[in-house]
Amino acid sequence: MKQSQFIDSHKAATVIVVAAMIAVNDSWHNVAAWVYLSLHGTYGILWLLKGRLFPDASFQQQCTLGFGVAIWLGLSLYWVAPWIVTSRRVTPPVWYLAVCIGMFSMGVFFHFSADMQKHTALRLRPGYLISDGMFSLCRNPNYLGELLIYASFSVLAMHWLPLVILAVWVGVVWVPRMLRKDRSLSRYQDFASYKKRTKLFIPFVV
Description:
mainly alpha
């Protein structure tokens, strides 16, 4: 099976799982719970659409059942945030909800715009280093987008645990993947100068 099959099935399950959490915890009147369901559920739907329209080639690799289950369990750590929101009946102020929604929206822009640019560029200009457009801001704008998206989910819970889980994902999964990508792109003659003028995935920071 492909990695994408496990990832996509998890993304599809998220809206069902979060809705079940709302029901189990009787959070029908909790605005934060519905906002969370809307944000994370929408992200899942957008991910599935992206997989159909401009899939990420790195997720099309074959994997064992054990590795696929590990992917599922790892991604399920992100469900800690909605459980906290629904079980603790988190009630952030309106302005806080607005910040979370804005953060999510910016993340969607960076994540999906970068993936679309990469998909199109690889089809139209194979063999060239992608260093313009979204990739002129940093070398991994798609991960910048994902960081903003998952940060919006995490801070919505108003608890430290989802932030720790996100930090572990960034350190254990995302950063190694970005560094492997840098090593792969080093075969391009102009990569050294591109690397010197850009950050890994957060503009002006790292």
